[in-house]
Inverse folding.
């Protein structure tokens, strides 16, 4: 041990010497050298302590006293770890446990929270009991030369009990979880109850694009082959539903209205993640998906509730998608119906003049379109 | 019968061979076909890879702790990967990817199974060498080539693969999607194909050795749990790795030959329409996780087996519920093939399928729970010797509990909606398969070091190593659960862009320092390991007073393992502290006839003649007592 540290120490001083010459151009080598030196000193101290312990052990043996009983030392360490660990876990739960997401801001999220807290309660009981047993057994049954272990190869009754008990607990969790999952993913559309609003969200490197239906409440068709510099979502403008489709920078959602997020991706897999609403679904190129949910708390209410005047709901990308993955966000604002309508009326359609020019809309077609808009008004 | 012929054949060869089979440096240390040497090769390569992967993790931990700070030294060391002393965000992802790949495949699959299957299968079953020593050697060298190719990707211009260790296409399939998806990904795929070839050769070897070559008396129910675990691991690997090859080869096709297995409707840079049509990115995920989920059991099962063995030896008690332990391993093996969908709950897969995978996933928790309770029962009323190996085995159990319980959250499709791909997942798998498996591996290294190198490791340095690593790992991964519950996604280069994540910056700094402490603690192991190989105390033949066969071989390694005849096995490996026995352990090679005073009727379950003898003996004992 000592020999090794000496060799390392020599290397350390070598590195430190090199730092002195490079000091003019501070590239952090000096700091690194300082830390390495510190580490080597620690190693050195550990080596010395090791030697002292060894000498102590040997003198004890020479004086025919008992050497250090490492089994006792480790047994006590296990007990200390248990107590310190229990306090550490308690501290984590109270301090960092308070930093987690607030209660769900969506209807199905409340069910998610229930499921979560049930699971947490059950698993925490098991966690505490098993860890306490583990470390107390280690302390209590530490080695004693005068004792033998208890020869207990098996006990069928107790084995049956602890096979069936977790099976029952897990069955409860499975049933509870299965119904929660079904309720969340249940396709309400299939039951002929369409969502109040359809919103398209399309992920690409490294941003989200939003598309709201206009007055007709219907989104036009899209085709990836139509994507171009001007038509970035590949909206098929032959589909009349697309004429009034709106673009938006921020996702506004009216409170207590069901929303159907239609999720698309253009290049690689992204993931629409809205943690406050307990919403997540991957955006997969070539595989359109959707998630239906109903926000229940407006941004303004949430700001008061959390006492954070700048609070915003956010959409994050939660599937690694490239270099700027960590910065692919969209702000979500949940507002009242009136505010929503006011906001919606200010959004611009995707069918811009540039696109119209691109599509070489003939003069008469333009007229048709303006008539149509007039009709709608 | 077959075992006898094999053994005669090897012995006769052994004697003839001395004439023309010179032991050179090359065939002893490099291209060795001896399973003990191959085990050491796997171990040392595995440790080297583990240290590399650990250093990568420290690099990205520094980035997470100090996202705004420049470290000029980093630029000196990494050059264009850290312009201005800050990690490049693409290179950050490359670090994460290669850290994961190396740890999962190169350390915890090849390093763990490769070392202990090669060492323990022949030694614990009484075999002179593997069924096919040449294939065994090839397996190591394929693994070595795979390591070389994987690491070489750090030296190419665009850097290593960086789409995460799961390399989901289209990100990994489109070279334009990120720098790492260029040549780096090609090297990753080539490396992985070599790796899988290595694993298949190894796995087939392990399975055939275990099934065909056990010594006389060693029926399956007398095998130590370590061998049971390695056997089932090998079966898992042989059945699931080929599926990954299929997935990887199709990805190679998509990348290089213009096919569209995984690609459909892709537009790059919001304007370049790509010609791919009809593929499905989800197909890759199915193929990947069909291996990927069994893979996590490939990682953890050997650790379970090693810990069971080490805990039994050092508690001086038989493992509690040996049969239940084996059946739960079998249960895990079978179930692990039908749970892969729980990685894909939020991919847009049919929700009904999600429900099914949720049920199978939560069922797999039952055998895992049984194993945990059995370990606790093994410790109960034991006479626990705290060797370094024992401490690491205990650490493995503690991590397995902590990480396993959070699996109940993630296996639940509903809860996975909000926890998927967050730090909660990172905390979960680093505890349950990362830390637990590496602790199982370290337990094995400390326990079988005397067998591998003929010398003892320093126990007190082992204690230091254990406590620093154990506490360090909890300090690193425990807070991550709460980050995950706050909706912080994994694989984020910096937490600075979202207001809500800024509260975790200080926690990140803390985690990084805990990680640095744990990493430095590994130097205690490295020093201990290297120092003990050359200057450690000479090991006795059976340093732990263990029952298994490997401790009946001479300390000096010889070709063929046992100098004379291979010993015959008469009993199970867990007769520790048996009442009435002379010592607190009875080796497997001791016949029941020599231990009449400690035999139990249970020992003669399939042996009516023996049972008769036993009852005769007990009745004479009784009558003797009465006479007295």
């Amino acid at each position: 041990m000592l020999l090794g540290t000496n060799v390392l120490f020599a290397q350390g001083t070598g590195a430190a010497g090199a730092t002195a010459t490079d000091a003019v151009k501070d590239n952090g080598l000096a700091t690194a050298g300082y830390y390495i030196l510190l580490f080597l000193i620690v190693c050195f101290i550990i080596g010395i302590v090791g030697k002292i312990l060894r000498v102590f052990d040997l003198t004890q043996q020479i004086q025919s006293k008992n050497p250090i009983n490492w089994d006792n030392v480790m047994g006590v360490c296990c007990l200390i770890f248990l107590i310190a660990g229990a306090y550490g876990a308690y501290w984590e739960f109270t301090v960092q446990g308070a930093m987690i997401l607030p209660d769900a801001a969506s209807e199905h999220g409340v069910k998610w929270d229930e499921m979560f807290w049930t699971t947490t309660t059950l698993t925490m009981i098991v966690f505490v009991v098993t860890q306490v047993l583990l470390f107390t057994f280690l302390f209590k049954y530490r080695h004693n030369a005068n004792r033998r272990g208890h020869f207990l190869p098996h006990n069928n009754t107790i084995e049956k009990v602890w096979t069936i008990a977790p099976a029952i607990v897990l069955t409860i969790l499975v049933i509870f979880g299965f119904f929660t999952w079904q309720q969340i993913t249940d396709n309400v559309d299939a039951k002929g109850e369409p969502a109040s609003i359809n919103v398209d969200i399309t992920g690409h490197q490294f941003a989200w694009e939003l598309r709201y239906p206009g007055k007709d409440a219907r989104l036009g068709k899209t085709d990836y082959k139509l994507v171009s510099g001007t038509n970035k979502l590949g909206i098929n403008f032959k589909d009349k539903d697309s004429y009034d489709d709106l673009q938006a920078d921020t996702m506004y959602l009216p409170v207590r209205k069901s929303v159907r997020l239609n999720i698309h991706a253009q290049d690689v897999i992204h993931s629409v993640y809205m943690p406050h609403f307990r919403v997540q679904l991957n955006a997969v190129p070539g595989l359109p998906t959707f998630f239906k949910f109903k926000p229940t708390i407006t941004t303004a209410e949430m700001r008061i509730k959390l006492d954070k005047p700048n609070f915003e709901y956010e959409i994050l990308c939660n599937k690694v998608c490239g270099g700027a993955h960590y910065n692919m966000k969209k702000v979500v604002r949940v507002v009242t119906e009136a505010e929503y309508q006011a906001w919606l009326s200010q959004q611009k359609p995707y069918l811009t003049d540039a696109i119209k020019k691109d599509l070489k809309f003939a003069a008469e077609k333009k007229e048709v379109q303006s008539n149509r808009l007039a009709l709608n008004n | 019968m077959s075992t006898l012929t094999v053994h005669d054949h090897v012995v006769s060869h052994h004697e003839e061979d001395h004439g023309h089979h010179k032991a050179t440096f090359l065939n002893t240390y490099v291209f060795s076909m001896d399973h003990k040497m191959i085990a050491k090769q796997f171990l040392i390569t595995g440790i080297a890879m583990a240290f590399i992967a650990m250093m990568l993790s420290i690099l990205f931990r520094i980035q997470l702790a100090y996202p705004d700070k420049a470290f000029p030294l980093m630029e000196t060391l990494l050059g264009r990967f850290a312009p201005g002393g800050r990690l490049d965000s693409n290179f950050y992802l490359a670090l994460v990817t290669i850290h994961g790949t190396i740890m999962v495949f190169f350390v915890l699959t090849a390093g763990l199974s490769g070392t202990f299957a090669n060492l323990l299968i022949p030694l614990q079953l009484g075999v002179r060498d593997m069924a096919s020593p040449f294939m065994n050697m090839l397996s190591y060298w394929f693994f070595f080539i795979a390591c070389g190719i994987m690491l070489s990707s750090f030296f190419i211009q665009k850097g290593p693969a960086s789409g995460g260790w799961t390399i989901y296409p289209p990100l990994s399939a489109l070279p334009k999607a990120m720098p790492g998806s260029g040549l780096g990904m090609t090297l990753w795929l080539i490396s992985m194909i070599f790796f899988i070839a290595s694993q298949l050769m190894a796995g087939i070897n392990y399975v055939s050795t275990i099934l065909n070559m056990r010594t006389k008396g060693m029926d399956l129910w007398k095998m130590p749990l370590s061998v049971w675990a390695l056997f089932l691991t090998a079966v898992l690997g042989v059945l699931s790795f080929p599926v990954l090859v299929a997935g990887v080869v199709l990805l190679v096709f998509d990348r290089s030959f213009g096919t569209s297995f995984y690609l459909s409707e892709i537009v790059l840079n919001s304007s370049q329409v790509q010609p791919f049509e009809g593929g499905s990115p989800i197909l890759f995920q199915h193929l990947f996780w069909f291996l990927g989920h069994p893979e996590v059991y490939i990682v953890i099962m050997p650790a379970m087996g090693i810990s069971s063995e080490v805990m039994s030896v050092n508690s001086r008690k038989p493992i509690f519920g040996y049969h239940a332990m084996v059946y739960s391993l079998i249960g895990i093996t079978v179930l692990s093939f039908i749970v892969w969908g729980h990685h894909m709950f939020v991919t847009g897969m049919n929700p009904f399928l999600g429900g099914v995978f949720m049920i199978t996933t939560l069922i797999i928790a039952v055998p895992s729970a049984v194993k945990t309770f059995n370990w606790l029962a093994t410790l109960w009323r034991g006479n626990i010797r705290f060797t370094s190996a024992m401490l690491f085995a205990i650490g493995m159990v503690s991590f397995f509990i902590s990480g396993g319980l959070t699996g109940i959250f993630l296996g639940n499709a509903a809860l996975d909606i909000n926890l998927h791909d967050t730090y909660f997942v990172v905390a979960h798998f680093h505890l349950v398969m990362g830390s637990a498996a590496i602790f199982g591996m370290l337990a094995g290294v400390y326990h079988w070091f005397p067998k591998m190198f003929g010398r003892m490791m320093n126990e007190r340095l082992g204690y230091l190593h254990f406590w620093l690593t154990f506490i360090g790992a909890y300090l690193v991964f425990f807070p991550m659960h709460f980050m995950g519950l706050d909706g912080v996604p994994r694989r984020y280069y910096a937490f600075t862009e979202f207001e809500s994540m800024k509260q975790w910056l200080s926690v990140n700094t803390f985690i990084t320092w805990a990680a640095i402490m744990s990493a430095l603690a590994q130097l205690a192991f490295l020093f201990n390991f290297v120092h003990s190989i050359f200057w450690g105390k000479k090991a006795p033949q059976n340093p732990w007073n263990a029952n298994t066969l490997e401790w009946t071989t001479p300390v000096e390694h010889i070709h063929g393992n046992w100098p004379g005849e291979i010993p015959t096995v008469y009993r199970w490996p867990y007769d520790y502290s048996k009442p009435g026995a002379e010592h607190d352990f009875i080796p497997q090679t001791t016949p029941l006839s020599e231990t009449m005073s400690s035999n139990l009727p249970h020992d003669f379950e399939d042996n009516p003649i023996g049972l008769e003898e036993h009852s005769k003996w007990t009745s004479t004992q009784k009558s003797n007592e009465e006479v007295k």
